[in-house]
Amino acid sequence: MAYTNKIFALVDINNCYVSCERIFNPSLNNKPVIVLSNNDGCAVARSQEAKDLGIKMGVPLFQIKDIVEQHKVQVLSSNYALYAEMSRRFMKVLSDFVTPEEQEVYSIDECFLDLTAYAKKYDLTDYAQTIRQRIFTWLGLPVCIGLGRTKTEAKMANHIAKKNTYFNGVCNLVAMDYCAIESLYETIEVGEIWGVGSKHTKKLNSLNIYSVLDFAMAFPFMIRDQFSIVMHRTLLELHGVSCIELEHTQAPRKQIVASRSFGQRIYHIDDLKEAMSLYVQDAVARLRGEKMLCGYMIGFVQSNPFETHKPYYSKSAALTLPEPTDNVLMLCKIATKMIDDLYQKDVGFKKCGVILTCLEPKVNHTYDLFIDMKQITAGNNLMDSLEEIHHKFGKTKLALGASRLPNRSWNMSRNQLSQNYFRWDQLLCVK
After folding, report:
1. Count of C-beta atoms within a 10 Å radius of residue 108
2. Which residue ranges does the chain devote to CATH 3.30.1490.100?
3. pLDDT by residue (tens digit) across 317-327?
């Protein structure tokens, strides 16, 4: 078959967090498993067995407690360090099949590949199966692969591969008969299209557009006029017109957010300051990792919005920095000072956080003529030394205040956390 269009593949790890946990704990295989969000709040990953029990994405744990107990659902806390390392290895395996310019890391468990150049030499369905088998053999991760003439079509093909086992994990819409494609599209709700959210779904339904096929058959200019040029582009992509290219470089961050819910409500201002200090340190670590400076900082606190017997409390404060910085001491001092204004007595705080914005590349920043450069240099040297200590000895050896001491009252609940099998002190041991 001669291919004249571009051909994209979307490789997606099936039930990513659950699959990562099962690699190191095979006793979880063929059992209903859910992975919870931060603070053991909501289900953010579900095994197929858990989905079959009716457990929805994002549902709070307390709402499904009966299902969990009745069906002995295995409940795990999120182990992000483990998932990040498995994702890195997943992307590395994929890089063996394409050039760097033909790969786009879309999310922790998804990756786009441009397979256009391989169509003349390989049967792309077989090529995708080779990729799939390699990932499972080397990493133990089950994946599905969708192939299409556009990224939107590849996303749809991936969805079809996941929902229909007879595809054996690979759906190639490029090589499929148009009548067969229409039959599949007719059975898929329009909300499953990449980029079509719940708001657009409701409006599309009001226009008698319920399925993917209905959307594909819609008049393009009507979609553009009723929605936007973005939706018009989505429709063109479903028709095989590639409008979205691979992104090889990430767009610069506009902001960095660090916030978490507390394991229990906290009432004391010192606890709130400790938590805020830790989140600032986490945010600054990411800021420096991307070699950026922060020019504007927002701090916020919240009580529990789901409490019915107490009024909800939420307040924020913001400050424009006199000079953009990545100095954690300065930013922590400002953030903890904000707590003095944000704190309110007798409020049970459930969450706090910090937002760093007005970001700019550090290499491009020009300091004010009257700035004390000796102080800037001393601050940079201090930050470099602090990072080196963290790299060699871990973040808990040296930190600001009491923020990284164990057993703090505000620490996030992670009662069902698995091991990080990529740390020396947590390696699997055979006895």
Report:
1. 18
2. 255-393
3. 999 998 999 99
